[in-house]
Specification:
By secondary structure, the chain is α/β, with parallel strands linked by helices. Helices cover about 25% and strands about 30% of the residues. The chain has a seven-stranded mixed sheet, sandwiched between helices. Strands 1-3-4-5-2 form a five-stranded mixed sheet, with helices on one face. Strand 3 and strand 4 form a beta hairpin. The longest helix is centred in the last third of the chain and has 16 residues. It is globular and about 70 Å long.
Length: about 375
């Protein structure tokens, strides 16, 4: 795509030069209104000096995603180098698992593009119309046997269907993580099909002393965390989700001994199973991308964790997770602390996995705390 010239305001120039990958709508001049969604831009300052290149978005808080800094135009060789560097950063991780994120958007210098590998299948997704071209280039450069591309969701009109760019990807892909096998619903799964960012939590659960334990897995999706609990020795695992399809997938693909699992189709905010559990996992979906909604979301989190604490047995653990990017770590921690009360103590927080490392503050979206109830 041929970039068009756009002169940035002084404060926007400073943001680009500091290295932040986004320019927000409030930092744009009215001249930007002529650009279409996905237009590539050559960004200049008041002296007509090229300071970088970016991708314009016509709606939403983010107006421009920075593609490359400096005067050089982002070309095929540059994109190939970005991809190679991202894959090299994950070389050690690839020795431990066949499920990993090869490209993590702006944090790997490829804005609005992610690549998740599940065994011999790579799923490439873009979440900005202007990044579709980058995603297609990346997809064709990957060495994987099967490559599936999910185009960016348009704000208007129907969603574009996924496209096969190489091979014949199956409806269900598989990968092995720390010796445990998992399956991925490529046909209708969330995002790329599975949440690879929860690898650290799956590992923590699989390594926990859960022999004979009762486990409650809320917002269970396809039951990967439940499978990890079974691998750790749990003998009763109750999994709750409002998606009948996700629970059916969990029952078919992530159950070793069916006698140990029970599935409940419900909205967690409306209903939770009764009883007392040694481990309660609370991993709700993202609730907003807008700052104005944060107070309401914090109230919802407080209600949720107040409900969940009542299901934790004395001495048990509650895992509190948050993937709402607009809520910062300290705020989430204090919200959970207030909801749980003095009977719980934070034992540890799980850091982001290496393939989901955040290169800037807004990318640090996933927060996971391991809270221990008093023995009473």
């Amino acid at each position: 795509m041929i970039p068009r010239r756009y002169q940035l305001k002084k404060d926007a120039v400073a943001i680009v030069e500091r290295g932040h990958p986004w320019l927000f709508r409030t930092q744009m001049s009215t001249a930007a209104q002529v650009f279409g969604d996905g237009q590539w831009l050559r960004l200049v300052d008041g002296a007509n000096r090229v300071i970088g290149h970016g991708i314009y978005e016509s709606e939403g808080a983010i107006a421009i995603r920075i593609l490359r800094r400096g005067a050089d135009t982002p070309d095929a060789a540059w994109l190939a180098a970005q991809l190679a560097a991202a894959i090299e950063k994950r070389a050690e991780l690839a020795k431990r698992t066949t499920g990993l994120r090869l490209v993590n958007g702006e944090s790997d210098g490829l804005p609005a593009v992610v690549v998740d590998r599940f065994g011999d299948v790579a799923v490439v997704a873009s979440y900005s119309a202007g990044s579709d071209a980058i995603a297609r280039f990346v997809a064709r450069a990957l060495p994987d046997r099967h490559v599936l591309w999910r185009p960016a969701r348009r704000r208007r009109g129907p969603a574009l269907p996924a496209r096969v760019l190489r091979g014949s990807p199956p409806n269900v892909a598989s990968f092995v993580e720390d010796g445990v096998s998992f399956d991925v619903d490529l046909e209708a799964g969330h995002k790329t099909g599975a949440y690879l960012d929860l690898r650290g939590l799956r590992r923590a659960i699989a390594e926990a002393p859960l022999a004979g334990a009762r486990v409650l897995n809320l917002f269970a999706y396809t039951g990967m965390l439940g499978r990890a609990a079974e691998a750790a020795g749990a003998t009763e695992i109750v999994q709750v989700d409002q998606s009948a399809r996700a629970l059916a997938f969990a029952a078919e693909h992530h159950v070793g001994d069916p006698a140990k699992h029970r599935f409940m189709e419900a909205d967690v905010f409306d209903a939770m199973p009764d009883g007392s559990f040694d481990l309660v996992i609370v991993d709700p979906p993202a609730m907003t991308s807008q700052v104005k909604h944060v107070p309401a979301v914090l109230a919802a989190y407080k209600k949720l964790y107040s409900m969940a604490r009542q299901r934790v047995a004395p001495g048990g653990v509650l895992v509190a997770a948050c993937c709402t990017s607009r809520i910062e770590r300290d705020v989430f921690r204090e919200t959970v602390k207030a909801a749980l009360g003095p009977g719980f103590a934070l034992e540890r927080e799980l850091p982001p996995e290496i393939d989901h490392a955040a290169a800037f503050r807004e990318a640090d979206y996933l927060k996971i705390g391991w809270w221990r109830a008093s023995a009473r």
